[in-house]
Amino acid sequence: MTILFSVLLIFGAAFIGPMAAKYFRNVSGWVLALFPLTVFVYLLSYIPLVSGGEVFRESYTWVSYLGINLSFYLDGFSLMFALIVSGVGTFIMIYGGGYLGADPKLPRFYFSILLFMGSMLGVVLADNIIALFIFWELTSISSYLLIGYKHEKEESRKSALQALLITGSGGLVLLAGLILLGMMAGTMEISEMLSDPAVLADHPWYLGMLICILIGAFTKSAQFPFHFWLPGAMAAPTPVSAYLHSATMVKAGIYLLARLSPVISGTVEWTYIVTITGAITMLISAWLALAHTDLKKLLAYSTVMALGTLTMLLGMGHEYAVKAVAVFILGHSLYKGALFMVAGTIDHEAGTRDVTQLGGLRKLMPFTATFGCIAALSMAGIAPLLGFIGKELVYEAALSAAIFPMFFIFAAVAANVAVVATSAIVVLKPFFGEFKETPKKVHEAPVSMWIGPAFLSVLSILFGVLPFMIDGTLITKAAASIAGTPELVVSLSLWHGINAALILSVLTLLSGIGVFFLWDNFRSSKVMQGYDRVLGVAPKNGYEHTLNGILSFASAQTRFFQNGYLRYYLLTLITFFVVLTGYTIVAKTDMAMMLDFSDIMFYEWILAGVIITAAFAAVFASSGLVAIAALGVVGYSISLVYVLFSAPDLAITQVLVETLTVILVALVLVHIPKFQGYTAPSSKIRDGIIAAGAGLVVTLVMLAVLTLDFDPYMSEYFAENSYVVAYGRNIVNVILVDFRALDTFGEIVVLGVAGVGVYGLIKFGRKLHAKEGTNV
Amino acid sequence: MKSVILQTATRLIFPLLLVFSIFMFFRGHNEPGGGFIGGLVGAAAFVLFAIAFGTKVTRELLRIDPRIMVGWGLLFALLSGFISMWAGDAFFTGQWVFPVLFGNELHIGTPLIFDIGVYLVVVGFTLAVIFALEEETN
After folding, report:
1. B19 lies in which domain range?
2. Residues 599-658, chain A: which have Cβ within 8 Å of B?
3. pLDDT tens digit string along A193-245?
4. Does A776 score more than 80 pLDDT?
5. For A742, which residue in chain B has the nearest alpha carbon?
6. Do A657 and B71 lie within an 8 Å CB cutoff?
7. Nearest CB to A652: which of B32, B35, B121?
8. Could you tell me the pTM of the whole model?
9. What is the 3-state secondary structure (H, E, C) of chain B?
């Protein structure tokens, strides 16, 4: 097995998924979980080698002259991420199968989520930045499908589009940044950039490149002011949120920053922009969570808080910070994945996920409650769970920040106070207290829906109590990759003695519990509602206003150009042609054209006379049929011209097209009203001038062509090679189907698309017209 | 339009036109003809049939929806490109085999598959549009 194969395996599974849903029904989730599980086990086998300091590279040539390869790079950091993607992914497949159960759209879910999983694996394993970008965009597209899963609901469609537009436009900016980076570094391979970090900071393009890459990462990872799309994306079914919005997709931005940080970090610009954006996001979103009562919204804002924390740490970039990043990513994926699944289970069993409607469920769903509580303890950062170690490291990092340490300590503590309160709300409210009647009769969920939280929360305890399980095997090399210093060693432990970080932890915990008890009054207070309006709702409204502005500009512009009158389309097209081509001919050529009528045979004169007469007859015809017949005469006469000048292919084609055109037009004529003399004389004169101009310009172009020396290179090449290379004597056809096959392919695609369009106009145009009035 | 003369004539001309269309298609390799011209002749045959006997009968005769024919055509054309890629060449580079049949060496290559694609797209497009217009007229 290779890295490429493991990525392809998941993509392949995406196409098997819908069938599996049909044949395995209730156990389809378990069956499909085998795919990510296989990848997970395969990746586990790399741990001994990677922790020993080895890195792995695989490369497949793609567009070699642009430096684009399908190459993969596996080091400590990408290994940790890939394990999270495949490991959490395994449980998501099981959970999703149980959660969606008999939903008829289950096959679609399997397809989209596996497509996403493969793309996400691609993002974290890619070595080539263009390959990484393509996987990156695939995650945006597949997450669009996943968020819009309940497509009957307008809210789902809107949120899906919102997430796509924000991450997608960020992605475009990112592409520019990555290309700049590749040009500056002289290579497209991340591994080569890492092994030879050329001094990019002094490059004149550095700031532009940095800003482009940061916009890409910040939009993807929902940093302020783009933070609103993530809570909006909670319209997705919960298995999707548990996967995309906790452990994977939203961390892609963090992954990218961490991956590239040895190459592009360390400058003043980096430190200020990244650290401060992260801190602001962390602080704002942690408290925004408390304005909501929807379990998923609470969790979504706390995820944004976590992403802000990670961004802040990456901005700092010192040793504590990179350690904290590695531990926090793992810890957060474990508890947040579990909590989202628990929230989904509550919603699934109770029929609501509003914490004010829930209470006392622990007796009815003991497993879910237990694992939910463990995960929440880890999120609150309570010893001895992994979340505690992560939070301690964050505090250590903030304490040793190079700039504004007091601000970062304050921000980190204040944000974590809100997180402690949030973790208390998400489990204490639904599981403890008095039992409240819920829309559905509550049962314990099936095993498929609590096995995921069980594994993830138990790992939170295990890694917290026995941190040596992860520090040498995973965290050390992951942190070393982010720092760009292979010799970095991380040794984790629960107890560091009584130090500043521990005191801050205790302070955080106590204040958090205090906030929790005040929450019911505090949430509905004017201050909190105003806070949510300004920082939660306003950015979203800003987005919507911008979007509506663009849409109304686009429709105004469309109404102006696409006015629906064929005559104006033709008028515009032909006028532009006459003006632009005419100007070019007059201004750019010497107009030394020869009018030489000496070698024209008499039958050629006759043919020309027929064509001109027929053309005038068409213009002055009194009925449509006469006009068509006259145009037919023009067409057939032109095919005779082709015959005279030995172009039999063209002649045959012209005759056939002419025949079919007459049939087509005859069919259309039935629908067109009889000729009426409505056109004003002034319009007729205008049209006549433009038509004459078009004729004149075409004539001039033809004459100008004749003045050029004919370069026989191409025609000689085709004549020589037609039979030798392509085994055909008809050069025209050989060019069409062999030498220039790509052009022909483009043409038949256009033909096919035009066919669909014409068919749609004929079949549905009238119906639409009737339905929507004139607005077609 | 019911016309005995037209219907009788069509019965005779229709198969001839089809054979001619296939003849034009294969002839295109060395003489004027090819997928585009062959496709137009083929489309003309079915249009004639539709004028004489109506689109319903013609659609049954054709068996395949012309719109789907366009899709198949594009697929064939694309396939010929992929064969080149599998063979390790650039997209749409002609690949050839030379089987000997009854003592004659034949030239069979991916451009032939490509041309079949062109043929199908042309026939499918023309018929889709003309049938739709005819059905709308009635």
Report:
1. 4-137
2. 648-649, 652-653, 656-657
3. 888 776 788 888 999 999 999 999 999 999 988 888 888 888 888 999 999 98
4. no
5. B92
6. no
7. B32
8. 0.76
9. CCCHHHHHHHHHHHHHHHHHHHHHHHHCCCCCCCHHHHHHHHHHHHHHHHHHHCHHHHHHHHCCCHHHHHHHHHHHHHHHHHHHHHCCCCCCCCCEECCEECCEECCEEHHHHHHHHHHHHHHHHHHHHHHHHHHHHC
